Amino acid sequence: MTYIPRKEAVLLLEDGTFFKGLSIGKPGTTGGELCFNTGMTGYQEIYTDPSYYGQIVLNTTAHIGNYGILPEEVESASVKISGLIVKTFSDIYSRNRAQESLQKYLEKAGIIGISNLDTRALVRHVRSKGAMNAVISTEYTDPQTLRSVLAEVPNMNGLELASSVSTKEPYYVGEPTAPFKVAVMDYGIKTNILKQLTSRGCYCKVFPAHTSFGEIMEWNPEGFFISNGPGDPAVMTYAIETVKKMLETNIPLFGICLGHQLLALACGIPTFKMHHGHRGLNHPVKNLITGRCEITSQNHGFSVSIEDVKKNEEVMLTHINLNDHTVEGIKLKNKNAFSVQYHPEAAPGPHDSRYLFDDFISMMQKR
């Protein structure tokens, strides 16, 4: 395996900030909302996470690609990111179990990226100025042409993307003889969430995003799971109505990330676009019920209004972010429903919060 000579690539941000670097993945031009992930490992899981659909991912870790690609370390059937930005990109890999290089993986997935730029400066810029759209190109260097391409990239605020990544047909995961039947709403479900459910005795039927409540209930589920996913939750009126109907049944309900936001919206609690979001494996969250701190994996650009949670007499605030005091978990006081903003399934980690799946199982056992 040898190093690959690379073409020049450029990055233009919405506010006019411009970087030069070297091409990785496939040559071409791509755009999306720029966001950064602080995880030290798990790049393959990040790139296949449907919640990143429509986004260009910036890895803050200095070296990317050095442990290669392993087929089972995916969160969905394909790479979901729109583009990739890294500092040092490795064409070679050292893990003996890896089956191919990251470069080959990105090429086959048609992903356009850029390396060899000052990612530290770029992250500091986004943290200061906020999330914004960007374009990566190996084809154009003229700022006017790049601005024209960038103008065509949709704004994430008000964008419905969950139906774009959802399954087109229902499918089953787990053993039909398992103790619990769980209806999973796929708004961008991650593979490791399903693994956590099935390993605890759940037989899951995964439903497309726009499935009617009546069709879901025909399966007679003993639990509802509302998945993570991309886009603005506030415009997903179809999903909000479905969650409202689920709550009326009082069948146990568990939501993660986008699912957490949809549960809040179903309770009349608004969401908002964050300045630059939370994405990484090291976010501290306090469980307000136990008093314990959890180190969590997160990936979201929208959040639930903490003021409205506190004003809602039917909703309890259960978890809070210790960095910026945003809402990380809620529970309905008179219903069998709860949700968290972060990812307790967390692959490759941390695993501090996997007890939440046990809580869901316990809720179904007691019903």
TrEMBL record:
L-glutamine binds at S51, G229, G231, L258, Q261, N299, G301, F302. Residues 7-137 form the Carbamoyl-phosphate synthase small subunit N-terminal domain. Signal peptide: none annotated. Residues 1-180 are annotated as: CPSase. It catalyses: L-glutamine + H2O = L-glutamate + NH4(+); hydrogencarbonate + L-glutamine + 2 ATP + H2O = carbamoyl phosphate + L-glutamate + 2 ADP + phosphate + 2 H(+). One of its GO terms (biological process) is glutamine metabolic process. Its EC number is 6.3.5.5. The keyword Nucleotide-binding applies. PROSITE patterns: GATASE_TYPE_1. Keywords: Amino-acid biosynthesis, Arginine biosynthesis, ATP-binding, Glutamine amidotransferase, Ligase, Nucleotide-binding, Pyrimidine biosynthesis. Pathway: Amino-acid biosynthesis; L-arginine biosynthesis; carbamoyl phosphate from bicarbonate: step 1/1; Pyrimidine metabolism; UMP biosynthesis via de novo pathway; (S)-dihydroorotate from bicarbonate: step 1/3. GO terms for molecular function: ATP binding; carbamoyl-phosphate synthase (glutamine-hydrolyzing) activity; glutaminase activity. The active site is at C257, H343, E345. Pfam families: CPSase_sm_chain, GATase. Composed of two chains; the small (or glutamine) chain promotes the hydrolysis of glutamine to ammonia, which is used by the large (or ammonia) chain to synthesize carbamoyl phosphate. Tetramer of heterodimers (alpha,beta)4. Small subunit of the glutamine-dependent carbamoyl phosphate synthetase (CPSase). CPSase catalyzes the formation of carbamoyl phosphate from the ammonia moiety of glutamine, carbonate, and phosphate donated by ATP, constituting the first step of 2 biosynthetic pathways, one leading to arginine and/or urea and the other to pyrimidine nucleotides. The small subunit (glutamine amidotransferase) binds and cleaves glutamine to supply the large subunit with the substrate ammonia. Belongs to the CarA family. This is Carbamoyl phosphate synthase small chain. The lineage of its organism: Bacteria, Pseudomonadati, Bacteroidota, Cytophagia, Cytophagales.
